[in-house]
Design a protein that fits this description.
The protein is built from 8 helices and 21 strands. About 45% of the residues are buried. A hairpin with a 5-residue loop joins strand 11 and strand 12. Helices cover about 25% and strands about 30% of the residues. By secondary structure, the protein is of the alpha/beta class. The chain has 2 domains: about 210 residues, FAD/NAD(P)-binding domain (3-Layer(bba) Sandwich); about 120 residues, Polyamine Oxidase, Chain A, domain 2 (Alpha-Beta Complex). Helix 1 runs parallel beside helix 3, helix 1 runs parallel beside helix 8 and helix 4 crosses helix 5. Belongs to the flavin monoamine oxidase family.
Length: about 375
């Protein structure tokens, strides 16, 4: 290929697609609207306390025994991992005015999730290190994709300083949520109606969710025989897990049951305050003084969510490959976890979708 393959999005799918193209000697460029790589992967340290570790505000774990692509890639990249801590009793919070109940979780050790020692961001960084830095262009927003008079793909992009660039492309890999692409990228000629409909019907994974991580000097709940796992019908967090790194501080993370509209109305400060109060109720006085509570509301992230994502998460059945693109066939290829039917919403799905996209463009198996 004389022209590069243009990859839109520097999340896991985009970076993996780039690494596979590089292995085959195929030129590419990655255009990313954010000022960082990773997409919905976000591993954050506590300000001024990097010694406590990095904490995942996006995806957190994978299941090595079932998810063979990511297990193989982790081994190839020699990334250190550890098994999720679930030892001890779980807490069940049923009533606002009553203390939580302890319960024993019957669990198969072999089915525990696996976490990255440096957070999932370490996977992004390892992939990016395999790619020439100049091939990844941050703060570069794709505005439109068109087919010229010779039916060749052209990508129109805009940088943060307002300068525009027109990029001829051998093909385009849309490695971002289909719904986001449908809302923010103009296609000329228009995409077939069945494709646009499918794109907008695929809910963006994590787009309606928020996540909080409370960071402590140590995982004190383990000393009381608790796993850190909580199931709550009271909230505001409805699921809580031990998020402690392999070495460093202790941490608990939770997903919120509050709808995104309610979170927006309350504001971040109030939502975090409610989460802190819930942790004290669950885990006692030692939960009163976290080093920090890290918070990310993906529904308020314009590079992740669109208006339709504000409602309850539904329509799981829409996940999977998009229909044939007609005149756009092989010029426009979709990737991203939403486009993989079997592992949608997982890191594994993002990787498999990247492999499928590269195979479709090159006509050859990437492995």
């Amino acid at each position: 290929m004389n022209k590069p393959v243009v990859i839109v999005g520097a999340g896991l799918s985009g970076l993996r697609a780039a690494s596979l193209l590089m292995e085959q000697g195929i030129p590419f460029r990655i255009l990313e609207a954010r000022d960082r790589i990773g997409g919905r992967v976000l591993s954050t340290p506590v300000p001024d306390r990097p010694d406590l570790g990095r904490f995942d505000l996006g995806p957190t774990w994978f299941w090595a025994q079932y998810e063979k692509r990511i297990a193989s890639l982790v081994e190839e990249l020699q990334l250190p991992t550890f098994v999720q801590h679930n030892d001890g009793a779980m807490l069940v919070e049923r009533f606002q005015i009553k203390p939580p109940e302890r319960a024993v979780l019957q669990e198969n050790m072999e089915e525990r999730g696996v976490r990255f020692t440096g957070g999932v961001q370490s996977l992004m960084e390892a992939l990016a290190e395999k790619i020439a830095p100049e091939a990844i262009e941050l703060e570069t927003r794709v505005k439109s994709i068109r087919l010229d008079e010779k039916a060749e793909a052209v990508v129109e992009a805009e940088r943060a300083d307002g300068t525009a660039e027109s990029l001829p492309a051998a093909a385009v890999i849309l490695a971002l949520p289909p719904r986001l692409a449908a809302h923010h990228i103009h296609f000329s000629p228009p995409l077939p109606g069945n494709i646009l409909s499918d794109m907008t019907e695929k809910p963006t994974w994590m787009a309606s969710q928020a996540k909080a991580v409370a960071v402590y000097d140590r995982p004190f709940w383990r000393e009381a025989g608790l796993s850190g796992l909580v199931i709550s019908s009271v909230g505001p967090m409805e699921e809580i897990y031990d998020a402690s790194p392999a070495d460093g501080g202790g941490a608990l993370f939770g997903f919120f049951g509050l709808p995104s509209a309610v979170r927006q109305q309350l504001g971040e400060e109030k939502v975090v305050e409610l989460a802190a109060e819930q942790l004290i109720k669950l885990f006692g006085k030692e939960a009163e003084n976290p080093r920090a509570i890290l918070y990310k509301d993906w529904a308020g992230d314009s590079e992740t969510a669109v208006e339709e994502d504000a409602g309850p998460f539904k329509n799981y059945k829409s996940y999977g490959p998009l229909p044939s693109a007609g005149i756009w066939e092989k010029k426009l290829v979709f990737a991203g976890t939403e486009t993989n039917a079997e592992y949608s919403g997982h890191l594994e799905g993002a990787l498999r979708s990247a492999e499928a996209a590269v195979i479709k463009i090159t006509g050859a198996n990437s492995r």
